[in-house]
Design brief:
Layout: H1 28-35, E1 46-48, H2 59-77, E2 84-86, H3 103-113, E3 120-122, H4 127-130, E4 136-145, E5 150-154, H5 163-167, E6 173-175, E7 184-190, E8 199-207, E9 214-217, E10 239-243, E11 246-251, H6 256-268
Parallel strand pairs: 1-2, 2-3, 5-7
Antiparallel strand pairs: 4-5, 4-9, 6-9, 7-8, 10-11
This protein binds pyridoxal-5'-phosphate.
Length: about 270
């Protein structure tokens, strides 16, 4: 059973999931009555928490873990044994050279807080495993200069990587195509979609880039392709796994519009 420990993960408002005002989990006050009820068809095995994502401090984990450990101890005195405890994910990564917590310290905390727990522990890390392993490679369509701002317009958009539009997230951006010389451009890196939120970076310093060059948007391995959509009739980009000098296509590019046409012909023909 997922429970809500009412702990602020001290992360972005839209990815904090363990406060009482968040939609997730059984409210703290309801846990004891639920666990002390006998259900004819349910054999309760364990508890789960997941207080949020992109957590960069140990304190929220510590607060949540201590609260749950105390609850498990208290439940044991009333004859309820928790056999499995799922501590969720949430360990953050560095997008912008920010200080992050280490798995070593996280493990030390778990070992300390749950030293008396003799059940099975489950962890669900996501972003920390794959976030920094992914790059979104995109082609420069056009460099637009105005008296007010420069724009590097690329062929990827918020439909491919939603995090900047949705969370104002920072993603490091670098030039892939080699450019000789030291001249730079300061520009906003933007996509071709019809929204001002379709922006990957503001006032970024990049080598003088030109149409046809490739640009890399870093740390796109988590909450990237899986959050992609066909908004603006766009296709889903191919996903490619690279290992040294070998590569494999994990998923070819998908023309969602063609798929929709196939589907409608099945329905209407
Ligand atoms: C229940 C649950 N577990 C684990 C995760 C993974 O979180 P993270 O990528 O922050 O490790 C999520 C993410 O939304 C989640 O909802």
């Amino acid at each position: 059973l997922r429970i809500n420990p009412d702990i602020d993960a001290l992360t972005h408002e839209k990815i904090t999931t363990g406060r009482k005002e968040d939609k997730f989990g059984i409210a703290w006050e309801d846990i004891r009555p639920i666990l002390s009820t006998t259900y004819p068809h349910i054999n309760i095995q364990g508890l789960a928490i997941h207080i949020g994502s992109q957590i960069t401090h140990l304190e929220p984990f510590e607060n949540a873990f201590k609260k749950v450990a105390a609850l498990i101890k208290e439940l044991r005195t009333t004859g309820i044994t928790i056999k499995t405890l799922d501590l969720g994910g949430g360990v953050g990564i560095s997008y912008h050279n920010e200080k992050i917590l280490s798995f070593k310290d996280y493990a030390k905390l778990v070992k300390t807080v749950f030293k008396d727990f003799d059940g099975r522990l489950i962890f669900e890390p996501g972003r920390a495993l794959v976030g920094n392993a992914g790059l979104l490679i995109t082609k420069v369509l056009y460099v637009k200069r105005t008296p007010h701002r420069n724009f590097i317009i690329v062929d990827a958009g918020m439909s491919d990587l939603l995090r900047p539009a949705m969370y104002d997230a920072y993603h490091h951006i670098s030039q892939v195509t080699e450019r000789k010389g030291n001249s730079y451009i300061i520009a906003d890196v933007v996509g071709p979609i019809c929204e001002t939120s379709d922006i990957f970076g503001t006032a970024r310093k990049l080598p003088q880039t030109a149409s046809g060059d490739f640009i890399a948007i870093h740390s796109a391995g988590a909450y990237g392709a899986v959050m992609a959509s066909a908004y603006n009739c766009r296709h889903l980009p191919a996903e490619i796994i690279v290992n040294g000098n070998k590569y494999a296509i994990a998923r070819p590019a998908i023309n969602v519009n063609e798929q929709e046409n196939t589907l409608s012909s099945v329905i209407w023909d």
